[in-house]
């Protein structure tokens, strides 16, 4: 199915920018709403991209944004609960309801939705529950929908590996909450490719896909791998459940939200999947990508990171 015009809600964000670049490379017209046009400078320069200042939570503006397009992609999500439109309920559930209604009002049949691995209306965290509620709204719609559920996403501008790398740089010891929580991180460019592939794939209609990388890591393994890659190896002290909860509570008052009680609850469920990556895409490994932007400058350090995590013995 050929799509000529796509509205990407959340297109100026971390994942959205990659999706918009791929669509533009295919000469597809892309409409990207954003609150501040200046924040999407790199997208403004793309010839087929129209960056529009708008409030996607406003029903009238949303109706205008979705008018005359062939498909809508909704990427909006927040990692930490907040007041107003950046709360889990407004961002995940209310906005999804509004976007579906706008698509229906404008006869836009194709809709691709970003959910999250672990989304479940009965999940232990509010994040997982609101993501699950949004999925129910999508499935109950009469649209030609596809839901994609990525695990933790990594890439040059991510807010996960980069944050831990920063902590490793400055903290002499890292006290790690839920050290045995398991993740299957996925590269942002692979996620973007899956979204773009799904848009034109008739076989993807009415389907839900998990998007995961090639390997499962515990949180401790991820932090130790980052220490090897960056050259900032630090002692890692894993905290038990009670101390993990206490640390999460205390970090809620920090201006940089490394963790909250809600993310603590999310980590009670392993963030992994046995499903193969869809659309014939071969997902990239952390070890093959992250050293290029976080790695120690010395070739020896990069080699050591590869060697350590290929299962061979390493000198410490």
The span between the termini is 54 Å
Overall mean pLDDT stands at 91
Helix content: 25-40%
Write down how many β-strands occur, each being a DSSP E stretch of 2 or more residues. 13
Which outline best applies?
A: globular
Residue stretches low in confidence (pLDDT < 50, at least 5 long) are 297-302, 311-316
SS-derived structural category = alpha/beta
CATH class of the domain at 5-155 and 185-211, named Alpha Beta
How many helical elements?
A: 13
Order of helical and strand elements: EHEHEHEHEHEEHEEEHEEHEHHHHH
CATH architecture title of the domain at 5-155 and 185-211? 3-Layer(aba) Sandwich
Computed CA radius of gyration, to the nearest angstrom: 20 Å
CATH superfamily of the domain at 5-155 and 185-211: NAD(P)-binding Rossmann-like Domain
CATH fold descriptor of the domain at 5-155 and 185-211: Rossmann fold
- Major sheet size, sense and barrel closure: 7 strands, parallel
Q: Could you give the order of strands across the largest sheet?
A: 3-2-1-4-5-6-11
Proportion of strand residues = 15-25%
How would you describe this protein?
The chain is α/β, with parallel strands linked by helices and 316 residues long. Mean pLDDT is 91; it is low at 297-302 and 311-316. It has a domain at 5-155 and 185-211: NAD(P)-binding Rossmann-like Domain (Rossmann fold, 3-Layer(aba) Sandwich). It contains 13 helices and 13 strands. Helix 1 (14-25) packs across helix 7 (188-199) and helix 4 runs parallel beside helix 5. It has helices at residues 14-25, 41-44, 59-65, 88-105, 126-140, 161-170, 188-199, 219-230, 241-251, 261-266, 286-289, 291-294, 299-308; strands spanning 5-9, 29-34, 49-53, 71-74, 110-114, 144-150, 153-154, 174-176, 182-183, 186-187, 207-211, 217-218, 236-238. It is globular and about 55 Å long. The strands form 4 sheets. Strands 3-2-1-4-5-6-11 form a 7-stranded parallel β-sheet, sandwiched between helices. The protein has a two-stranded parallel sheet with strand order 7-10. Strands 8-13 form a two-stranded parallel ribbon. Helix 1 (14-25) links the parallel strand 1 and strand 2 (29-34).
